[in-house]
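Researcher: Structure prediction, please.
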Amino acid sequence: MNRRRGILASVLVVAALVLSACTGLPVSGPVNPGLAAGEDAGSPEFLFRPDEPQPGATPEQIVEGFIRAGSGPGPAANWEVARMFLAPSIRETWKPEASVTIDLPDDREPVSPSEGAVELSLVAVATVDQNGAYQPDAGITQLSFRLAQQDDGEWRITEAPDGVVIDRDVFANVFHRYSLMYFDPTWQFLVPDVRWFPTTNAATRIADALVDGAPSGWLAESVRNSFPESVSLARPSVPLESGVAQVTLSAEALLVESTTLDRMQTQLSASLATAGVSGAQMSVASTPLTAETVSTRSTRVTGPPLVLTEEGFGFLSGDELTPVPGLSDAMDLVEPLAIQVAPDRDFAAVRLVGDAVARVPSDGDIAVIDSRPGLVDPSADPFGYIWSVPRDRPTEIAVFSADGVQSAVADAWPGATQVLAMSVSRDGTRLAALLVSGGRSEVWIAGIVRGADNVPERLGDPVPLGPLVGTGSGLAWLDDTTLGLLSSEAGGPLFTQQLIGGPATATDAPQGAASVAGATSISTVRLRTDDGSLYVKRGANWQRTTSGILILATQQGSPQ
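Model: Predicted structure follows.
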């Protein structure tokens, strides 16, 4: 149940940066009081004052001015300048907090098809809803406005869509991404749910979204929130004291047992850490609640690249290959084409020559588990299951337990015609895939819904992360919120970093890029080319580090 009170009700305080027409920074006027002791200042606000309606403005000019003014000054001034463009009949009912449309400002085209009507055409790249959730929305969008001349002869808007429009290039300066942290169903992992909020008062927005909100719809069935629905924020703000967020909860929190309190503390602390907040203190009225963060399993991949060479399978450091106990010997018994190693390194999911999928355990008891034709590279999850699917039958995902029991995963990728690559997140809660849909490559993600014994039963409603430039060929998790994608077009291979719940960034990749693997950070992602060279991303460039790599394996974490 979503009890959110509307995150964007105070979202656009700083959004006036988007204005292309403004009167400049104020250099005169009254001195305003500072913040009260302990109040969360957040990042500095730079408030520009947009132009007010000009006498004699045409309907098109009124709409253009409204679009600019709707982005600032925000709730502190109740969007007073934007409301000047509205007729009295809708001045108080227009809801600027409903959503944000992120667009390309040079492509805004207002047209008046008839007197009193304006159609604004814009190229949208994404939207952010009232909960801070980002959704790609590429394409031309039409916004319709009705206007009427007032008693003074000036045009004012009588019908306008709720929400505001922000320039894509400015959006990243006004908003920042934060992660709401939830637990996986086993309470072992923290799972991020990316949201976009203004940088000011970030602690308040994060706490409100976590305590009084809910996970994103596509993820909701795959994670757990330790905050009971009976508990809510008792104060509308979350001040910082010596870098620690003071989170005042309703009296119902006094009835929560200690294990749940500790999990609440863990979620709060981890979520607020994404805003640079050093900690959280929960309290009821003036009484602090005693709670400690619980231990969670890390999903980081540590150490040098894991590769197969003519010398064998292991971690490559310089010219030295360090074997993986048990697994390196087992790899000598098979002919692999792709390898993904489980987090405890006790087994690997392997696609063999001939495209069959096998479980290769460290004890050497190798089992071919899927012999369907045309299989893509398999994926291993942290609960011992191997995921496999035929390239041309994307809905036919099968999972295989450690003892070889096969189960079908329902509701997989409706509408897709091919799956080019697929991988489970390291926390086991999400499945990402490169799909062909409508004749083009796209990136999709879905939550994993599990039953007894953590058996994957079905996928939640999948959501697109965005189209991919060119034809997709490879996918890997770089961290808990970012995918690394390989594709090719006429100009050559591309490497794309796709934020889950955010935009993508595409750069050139080395010629012949064939596979990708995550490392200790996004800045050290690794690529293998078809001539066996290994490249590491150093800043904006790719550096060739070695050759003779037959397979670049991916890892689903590190042993604890």
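Model: The first helix runs from residue 59 to 69.
Researcher: Thanks, that helps.
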